[in-house]
Specification:
The structure holds two protein chains of two kinds.
Chain A lengths: L1 H28 L3 H29 L1
Chain B lengths: L1 H37 L1 H4 L1 H6 L4 H10 L2 H11 L1 H6 L11 H21 L23 H29 L2 H10 L4 H29 L6 H14 L6 H22 L2
Helix pairs in contact in B: 1-4, 1-7, 4-5, 8-10
Classes of the chains: A mainly alpha, B mainly alpha.
């Protein structure tokens, strides 16, 4: 059960990080570089959390 | 013994000063001199907040002789003032001459940071009887290894620089960009420079370093590290990176909200 929860959260977080990167590109197009950098940081942080949850899901699977 | 400790302290202090001076040179060439010429200090308050930011990782890295702070933290922190005022790296700020000087300074800093922070290796065993060193210089295996290290340094410098020259300074490319993207030459060049960075890293890891890494055996510190990583990957609780990432995400979101409501 926990494994499936971790897997769903992983997909949500890694998929959700794409939204931040998309927004980052949008801000870059508007020449708002600081906001784009901050959004890129959010995207990377969210991906890291998703990656850690993916590892936990694999540990549960083993 | 006391003399040896004092000598080590002096060497460490000297290394820290060399690293700080070379880092200051890069910082001044890339940020301060263009900022003074373009008037960045009077233009935006973000620049005031960010221009000294790279000094933090440089100072920490030099004091602790930590490669991660010096080779990753300091170059990444240099992006903060550049993001605050992108004109610092805009077209025509650096000519071929000034850019070459900047490159020489950056390569000297990277070389010093790599050499002065390397692992000194295990302590010599004092219990074993002293042995005479073989004469005739290092063994062919070590000479070969040094040649490969030197070659890696050369390709790590030459490939990105050639691509950067082709994108930013080659007359044919400049002319082509001016024809194709009349009002968007700056963003296109920035995009191409990003492509150069990605391509250089990809080439280094997959074409130059990758094939050699498969043959690297008998490296006890590396094997011990791999074993630690293997054990850590089997642990069923989140690692520190998880909590750090959550805090970073929240902090970045707060910063974004603050930017939105305090433009």
């Amino acid at each position: 059960m926990r494994r499936h929860l971790f897997e769903v959260l992983t997909v949500l977080l890694i998929g959700g990080s794409l939204v931040f990167f998309y927004e980052c590109v949008t801000y870059l197009a508007q020449r708002q570089y600081v906001s784009a950098l901050v959004l890129c940081g959010i995207g990377i942080s969210v991906i890291s959390v998703g990656k850690e949850l993916a590892r936990l899901a694999l540990v549960q699977k083993d | 013994m006391v003399e040896s400790a004092a000598s080590e302290r002096l060497t460490a202090r000297g290394s820290a000063w060399v690293l700080v001076l070379l880092g200051l040179n890069v910082w001044a060439s890339l940020v301060i001199l263009p900022a003074l010429a373009l008037g960045s200090f009077t233009r935006t308050r973000w620049f005031w907040l960010s221009f000294a930011f790279p000094m933090i990782p440089l100072a920490i890295g030099a004091l602790r002789r930590a490669p991660a702070w010096l080779l990753l933290g300091f170059p990444a922190a240099l992006l903060a003032p550049l993001a605050a005022d992108p004109r610092l790296v805009a077209d025509r700020v650096h000519g071929v001459g000034t850019f070459s000087l900047l490159v020489v300074g950056a390569l000297a800093y990277l070389a010093a940071a790599s050499l002065l922070t390397q692992d000194p290796g295990p302590e010599p065993q004092t219990l074993s009887p002293p042995r005479t060193l073989p004469t005739g210089g290092p063994a062919p295996r070590w000479r070969r290894r040094r040649r490969i290290y030197l070659l890696m340094v050369v390709v790590a410098a030459v490939f990105p620089l050639t691509l950067i020259y082709a994108v930013n300074f080659r007359p044919e490319t400049r002319e082509f960009l001016a024809q194709m993207f009349r009002d968007r030459v700056g963003p296109m060049r920035a995009l191409m420079n990003l492509g150069v960075l990605v391509l250089s890293v990809f080439l280094f890891w997959h074409a130059f370093y990758g094939p050699l890494a498969r043959h690297r055996t008998g490296d006890p510190p590396l094997l011990a590290r791999l074993e630690r990583l293997r054990k850590a990957s089997r642990r069923g609780s989140p690692r520190a990176a998880f909590y750090v990432s959550v805090v970073c995400a929240l902090a970045f979101m707060s910063a974004l909200l603050w930017l939105r409501y305090h433009p």
